[in-house]
Amino acid sequence: MATLDDSVLHHELDRVLIDQDTIRERVKQLGRQLAADYGDRHPVFVGVLTGAFIFMADLVRATPIPLDIEFMAVSSYGSATHTSGVVRILKDLEQPIEGRDVVIVEDIIDSGLTLQYLLDVLKRRNPRSVSVVALFNKVKAERGNLPVDYVGFDIPDEFVVGYGLDAGRRFRNLPYVAVYSKR
After folding, report:
1. DSSP assignments along 124-143, one per residue
2. 90: how many CB neighbours lie within 10 A of its CB?
3. CB count, 10 Å around CB of 141?
4. Which residues contact 33 (CB under 8 A, 6 or more apart)?
5. Catalytic: 149?
6. Is 116 left (phi over 0), alpha (psi -120 to 50) or beta?
7. DSSP string of 12-59?
8. Which of the residues 110, 120, 149, 154 is marked catalytic?
9. How far apart are the C-alpha atoms of 35 and 31, rounded to whole Å?
10. How does pLDDT run across 21-79, given as a tens digit for each residue?
11. pTM for this structure?
């Protein structure tokens, strides 16, 4: 298990929230569940860049069915630790999704603003179905009910980094998730 003493970078981190082994096992479980649910349907997994790239890579390897991979870059944060409230598409899909089963792969559901925007955009493209898998879901009462079909972990409403999640483009390469508290 990783500790906060692993690197000089960690002076900005409070504690490890979810260790590497726990993440690895949960991603395998999600992959098996997706394979069981989509079996013979050949879905397209749409990874939301940049935060979901590590989760997406591990998830598709853990999902033993035929699938296609696409990426979108959608931002509501910039370099801040709080959402700006404005969502922008920075990179769009390269292939059409009309008639396809789409699995949106998100790193974290926070305010829900980015996911809601992405759902609206993709549903207008007439896919057969759209589901959402998020590795982390921040528990927030004020967010309302977003359709998240698969959740790796419910986490407290704290700013977290690691396993693809960043603070100002840093910490994405940590193999675990830690609470960020720049001191």
Report:
1. TT--SEEEEEEEEEE--GGG
2. 10
3. 6
4. 150
5. no
6. alpha
7. GEEEEEE-HHHHHHHHHHHHHHHHHHHTTS--EEEEEETTTHHHHHHH
8. 110
9. 6
10. 999 999 999 999 999 999 999 999 999 988 899 999 999 999 999 999 999 998 765 54
11. 0.87
Q: Any idea which residue has 């977003």 for tokens? A: 146
Q: How far apart are CA 7 and CA 54, in angstroms?
A: 20
Residue type, 73: A
- Distances in Å between the Cα of 3 and the Cα atoms of 6, 12, 54, 136 are 6, 13, 20, 20
Q: What is the pLDDT of residues 120-166, one digit of tens each?
A: 999 999 999 999 999 999 987 555 678 799 999 999 989 999 999 99
Residue with tokens 């559901």: 109
Place of tokens 């349907």: 41
